[in-house]
Amino acid sequence: MIEEALHFLLPTWWEVEITVAAAVFVIITYWFFTYGNGDVDENQAIRVGLIGDGIDDKVKMAQLKGDPQTNSAYVIKLELLAAKNLIGANLNGMSDPYAIITCGEEKRFSSMVPGSRNPMWGEEFNFAVDDLPVKINVTIYDWDIIWKSTVLGSVTVPVETEGQTGAVWYSLDSTSGQVCLHIKTIKLPVNSSRVLNGYSGANTRRRISSDKQGPTVVHQKPGPLQTIFKLLPDEVVEHSYSCALERSFLYHGRMYVSAWHICFHSNVFSKQMKVMIPFQDIDEIKRSQHAFINPAITIILRMGAGGHGVPPLGSPDGRVRYKFASFWNRNHALRTLQRFAKNFHTMLEAEKKEIAESALRAHSSSSLKDRSQGKISVDSLPTTTKFQPFVKEEALVSIYNDTFPCTAEQFFNILLHDGSNYTNEYRLARKDSNLVMGQWQAANEYNGQVREIKFRSLCTSPMCPPDTAMTEYQHALLSPDKKVLVFETVQHAHDVPFGSYFEIHCKWRLETSSESSCTMEIKAGAHFKKWCVMQSKIRSGAINEYKKEVETMLEVARSYIKSKTSGGGEIENAPSSSSSSVLQDNTL
């Protein structure tokens, strides 16, 4: 009997092996999802504000406006300190209050304080406005797990002048309740952008893209970012993850990651929850734990950013945060978010550089319009040998390589000189209109000379309008021996879809090979100042279109040179060498 009882109670060796194997499997699985794949240790976090070789991201943010030389703007710093004597909305006589602060079109969420009628927040919210006075509305709600939040009261505070109010208690428009606010208004300098100090707000990119977008948009099937979060058509989902947002309990939904935002949507018990976090507001992305077996990701926002869409979690240092858990592979999602945060700040730096270069080209072509070319001499040229590149060499591909029936010097004197009518004839052959040509001006930044040309060009693409306004910056440089000519152009199309996203760069290089001919190499390409959904199509279409344009240009050029050549082969009406001497440079 005893032997039978022991045989029944004691596990067999096979059962022991199965139990040990299962335990080992559980331990290895937990280690893999928590520490695996060579990730950083538990306390390591990415400080996205310090990514990018120590570049100040506040300066980068200023470039998103596209025009740092704006009029004076104001920054309003609102501190939500506390509230008292709020209405008890729950059955136990308490409330779970949170606040929504609205200034103009910007809306921010405070954290939720559970079970309190006298909450303490100590959170700061920054708003950027163009003019004063403005009105700030603070509405306090009671958070409900399932049902719609209940309004506990609101107050509207006018901000009329600069300065600060101190801590002031404002009565709510309800039967009971007051809220304590501290408001400080700062006027930014004339040459400063509101985003220079990180006060851009959640909808900065939406406003910028809407302002820069041309009158024609590309019609494509909207994705979840458009249907759920109402973002712009050019913002697409790069990655998506099934996860849960930590609140009173886990609200399961889906996270969408784009180049500009981290978005989350949940619909649990018919309670819609939408979180839209701009990368520019993120201060830290770090790993965390919701429970012992539920790894999570915590996204901490910078001071003054406030919550976006749903009340965030509070923290002692005043920064708010969102915590997401229940990822299938938390480490993979963490690496993706960190990589996209780094790419965002890299993109800001690239846009900053592009804006500076575009402004430099525009300044070079317009700053000396009142000076005539005849007054410029070789002695007036700068002696520095460090110049800015006019086009992006890495974006160019060769599209033409052949001989041409004139020398490099003749090409400029006959076709490109201010007195030449070639550009008018060429644009007329292309059926372009409204041609406005500037004069060649000395370019200290690029060496040689630059000029600006504006016209309206016909569009053949079905996605484009019938015609579009064009701006072309031209740069010409002739070697001291007058045997090598470099002619570069940068074109901006203003009315086509994504026209503000790219430029058409072209480079002509002519080298005299005989008394009446030269070798000609032409390169062209599309340089993108920022990413767009149709980047590959735009690049290939631009190269093909410029190939056709080169055929027309060379055909009109040969005809024009022939009309300027006498019967003996001598070129008539060529300008004097002194008028083109300003193009010469010793660096070629």
What does this structure look like?
This protein is an alpha+beta fold and 588 residues long. The chain is built from ten helices and 24 strands. It has helices at residues 2-9, 13-35, 57-63, 204-212, 224-227, 330-366, 408-416, 422-429, 535-563, 577-580; strands at 45-47, 74-84, 97-103, 106-109, 120-129, 134-142, 150-159, 163-171, 178-187, 239-246, 250-257, 261-268, 271-278, 282-291, 294-301, 321-325, 397-404, 433-437, 441-442, 449-458, 467-478, 484-493, 502-514, 517-528. The chain has an eight-stranded antiparallel sheet, covered by helices on one side. Strands 17, 18, 19, 20, 21, 22, 23 and 24 form an eight-stranded antiparallel sheet that branches. Strands 5-2-9-8 form a four-stranded antiparallel sheet, with no helix packed on it. Strand 11 (250-257) and strand 12 form a beta hairpin. Helix 3 (57-63) crosses helix 6 and helix 8 crosses helix 9. It is elongated, with a radius of gyration of 32 Å.
